[in-house]
């Protein structure tokens, strides 16, 4: 029994070490990941029409000329969304004046609850330049599909029907000034790494 427990402990330690190594590689090799992502044969991104937090209808073309940092999530998200938006906000602050060349976008995957008014209050918590986008269920579906974003409602066993969570993929997408896909920053990428990568790209 003791030997079995030792084997289990050793296997667990190995798994943790491998996971830590993967996480370290992801965080410390942002540029190479972003560059390799552009070689994908699967198109990512494309035209979209949505509504921003002021109630104005916008399209992807409205943001031409700037790099886009795009995160898909929802305002009722208890953990990963505020964490990643906080990372985006810090990266923009670290960029200083270069942040004028970057437009951060938060696209809701929960149009049922993320109204324009609610979205306006939410994005204001993170950064003055952060734009929140929502729309009809069809608009959200089409935009998420274009960016290969997974999302699905996850009803809770206890509580009211409206007290549900949303399962969704978690990446910060980087789009170029021409609207083309550049790559992704995986969850866990630090603000320093994002700012470093973006700063290099902006400087040319």
How would you describe what is shown here?
It contains six helices and nine strands; from the N terminus they run ααβββαβαβαββββα. The chain has a single domain, classed as 3-Layer(aba) Sandwich (Glutaredoxin). It has helices at residues 2-28, 30-37, 80-95, 116-123, 137-146, 191-203; strands spanning 49-52, 57-59, 67-73, 102-108, 131-134, 151-154, 165-168, 171-175, 181-186. Helix 3 packs across helix 6. The strands form two sheets. The protein has a seven-stranded mixed β-sheet. The protein has a two-stranded antiparallel sheet with strand order 6-7. The model is unreliable at 1-33 (pLDDT under 50). By secondary structure, it is of the alpha+beta class.
Describe the structure concisely for a colleague.
The protein has helices at 2-28, 30-37, 80-95, 116-123, 137-146, 191-203; strands spanning 49-52, 57-59, 67-73, 102-108, 131-134, 151-154, 165-168, 171-175, 181-186.
């Amino acid at each position: 029994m003791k030997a079995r427990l030792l084997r289990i402990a050793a296997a667990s330690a190995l798994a943790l070490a491998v996971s830590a190594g993967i996480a370290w590689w992801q965080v410390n090799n942002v540029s190479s990941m972003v560059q390799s992502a552009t070689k994908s044969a699967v198109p990512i991104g494309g035209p979209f029409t949505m509504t921003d937090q002021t109630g104005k209808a916008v399209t992807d073309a409205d943001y031409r000329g700037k790099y886009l940092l795009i995160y898909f999530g929802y305002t009722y998200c208890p953990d990963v969304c505020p964490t990643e938006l906080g990372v985006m906000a810090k990266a923009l602050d670290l960029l200083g004046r270069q942040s004028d060349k970057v437009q951060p976008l938060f696209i809701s995957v929960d149009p049922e609850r993320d109204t324009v008014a609610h979205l306006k209050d939410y994005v204001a918590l993170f950064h003055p330049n952060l734009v929140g986008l929502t729309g009809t269920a069809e608009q959200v579906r089409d935009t998420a599909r274009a960016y290969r974003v997974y999302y699905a409602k996850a009803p809770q066993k206890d509580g009211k029907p409206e007290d549900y969570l949303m399962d969704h993929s978690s990446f910060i997408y980087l789009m170029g000034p021409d609207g083309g896909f550049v790559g992704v920053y995986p969850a866990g990428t630090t603000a320093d790494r994002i700012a470093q990568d973006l700063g290099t790209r902006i400087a040319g």
